[in-house]
TrEMBL record:
<dbReference type="InterPro" id="IPR051209">
    <property type="entry name" value="FAD-bind_Monooxygenase_sf"/>
</dbReference>
<dbReference type="Pfam" id="PF13738">
    <property type="entry name" value="Pyr_redox_3"/>
</dbReference>
<dbReference type="GO" id="GO:0016491">
    <property type="term" value="F:oxidoreductase activity"/>
</dbReference>
<dbReference type="InterPro" id="IPR036188">
    <property type="entry name" value="FAD/NAD-bd_sf"/>
</dbReference>
<keyword id="KW-0560">Oxidoreductase</keyword>
<protein>
    <submittedName>
        <fullName>NAD(P)/FAD-dependent oxidoreductase</fullName>
        <ecNumber>1.14.13.-</ecNumber>
    </submittedName>
</protein>
């Protein structure tokens, strides 16, 4: 006897993508759905990351749902706690919590042709659904470096996304591994506390100044009384990011943009040797563009040293870099980022043949319009292959949700049992994507980044403007997909 719970739609993940999907389904009148969230509260990446200085690197006017502006942001770039509160407030306002199952970790999701549904195994039992929306996000599974002897490190060690608030850093010798988006936020916060801070930098990063400032109460009141003012700010920010996004199509254009980052470095780092270490050898935009006003000043402090090499070996309390440099440390903080090119969910989602997405992809994810994957009927993937843009995640989320909701609406109205991408159309689509990416700074900028997968293929980025992304996902064209109507299934069963 099957005792699993059945729903029309199951959403996996309670970050902004999953919450947005729940809100849009309610708006569309679909109420037979649940949202499975592994944590004890909603929040996604903003629940996981609580390191000192954690904040958004997209201005908050654009880092929010277009249909739920928040006039209460305290800064141009919102801090982590405010973003998490905003997410939870939106969930409460739209009465989403009755649909949420907290503490439900989706261990596997398997499509069954026999049962015509997704079978989702969780730590709390089995669930089934005709449609699934996998909104697990790309930034929650930390990358842990494979370093010889690190498991025998004599002190404390933790990843920035699993910050140990119980450990007092005061007066300690701290080593930070990595100089990415997280490290540039927490290093300036911990630098004044520690006795010695050693930063292991495998690759120098281009850093732009961050136009951050407080948003005083009168400004917040203006946003509340005249929402159009905040909409105008959102439009302005979107335009700036779209200019950058357009520039990424051309390495030559990005070299002009790079001048600002170079000037920022020259004005803040006076020591020529340190400046040399911090000067990247690739074109800006090849890696994620970072912004900070206090990263360079922190690195210039007397208790900070930068080792321009990756960590190679740990012996007791001694850390040894690839170039032979050494330091002693009491605490190691891993600022080594997240699995982006190979989303962790790919190991847990199984197609009709019982193969995981990870097995099929072999390190190079492919999908159709970044939202559906071959041989996984009725499965929608948020932040799927090749939809990343140099803009707000909300641009991607809302574009994909428009597309997915249109698919669900038509499936329900036309009594469609299954929808899946056509393998031939998927192949042609991906050929076009890869051809367009060849001339971008991601591919031609001269760096190794998380945009490039282990096979050297760019399976993450969207090569065109976000206008084109939104246009492509504005309507779900059934003619592009393979369909199976409920009536057809009944006929084949009766035969």
């Amino acid at each position: 006897m099957n005792t699993s719970e059945f729903h029309k739609v199951i959403i996996i993940g309670g970050g902004f993508a999953g919450l947005g999907a729940a809100i849009k389904m309610k708006e569309q009148g679909i109420d037979d759905f649940i949202l499975l969230e592994k944590g004890d509260e909603l929040g996604g990446v903003w629940r996981e990351n609580t390191y000192p200085g954690c904040a958004c690197d997209v201005p908050s006017a654009l880092y929010s749902y277009s249909f739920e502006p928040n006039p209460k942001w305290s800064r141009v770039f919102a801090p982590q706690a405010e973003i998490k509160t905003y997410l939870q407030d939106v969930a409460a306002k739209h009465q989403i919590m009755p649909f949420v199952r907290l503490g439900h970790d989706a261990l596997s999701a398997t499509w069954s042709d026999q049962d015509g549904c997704w079978i989702i195994q969780t730590n709390q039992g089995e669930f089934r659904a005709q449609f699934s929306i996998m909104a697990c996000g790309p930034m929650h599974e930390p990358v842990l470096p494979a370093v010889s002897g690190i498991e025998n490190f004599a002190g404390e060690i933790f990843h920035s996304s699993r910050w140990r608030h119980d450990i007092d850093l005061t007066g300690k010798r701290v080593a930070v591994i990595g100089t990415g988006a997280s490290a540039i936020q927490f290093v300036p916060q911990i630098q004044p506390q520690v006795s010695q801070l050693t930063v292991f930098q495998r690759t120098a990063q281009w850093i732009l100044p961050k136009s951050d400032m407080n948003l005083p109460k009168p400004v917040q009141a203006l946003f509340k009384l005249l929402p159009l003012t905040q909409q105008l700010m959102r439009g302005g920010v979107y335009g700036i990011f779209e200019t950058i996004n357009g520039g990424i199509q051309s390495p030559t254009a990005m070299k002009q943009f790079q001048r600002l980052a170079k000037l920022h470095l020259q004005l803040t780092i006076k020591d020529p040797e340190l400046r040399r270490k911090l000067t990247p050898d690739f074109i800006i935009g090849c890696k994620r563009i970072l912004q900070s006003n206090n990263w360079y000043p922190a690195l210039a402090q007397p208790n900070v040293s930068v080792i321009a090499s990756g960590l190679a070996k740990v012996e007791g309390n001694t850390l040894i870099a690839s170039d032979g440099s050494q330091c002693e440390a009491d605490i190691i903080i891993l600022g080594t980022g997240f699995e982006i090119a190979e989303p962790p969910i790919a190991k847990r989602v199984f197609n009709r043949f019982g193969q995981s997405m990870a097995e099929v992809w072999q390190g190079s994810p492919e999908g159709y319009k970044g939202t559906m994957v071959t041989d996984c009927p009725n499965g929608f993937l948020m932040f799927g292959p090749n939809v990343a843009v140099s803009s707000s995640a909300f641009i991607i989320i809302e574009a994909q949700l428009t597309y997915i909701m249109d698919a669900l609406r038509q499936a329900i109205e036309l009594d469609i049992q299954t929808i899946e991408p056509d393998p031939e159309k998927t192949a042609v689509y991906n050929e076009k994507i890869q051809a367009a990416l060849q001339s971008t700074v991601w591919n031609k900028g001269g760096c190794q980044s998380y945009f490039l997968d282990r096979n050297g293929r760019n399976s993450v980025a969207w090569p065109w403007t976000t206008f084109k992304l939104r246009e492509q996902l504005s309507a779900f064209n059934l003619a592009e997909y393979r369909l199976n109507h409920a009536s057809e299934q009944q006929e084949s069963v009766s035969v």
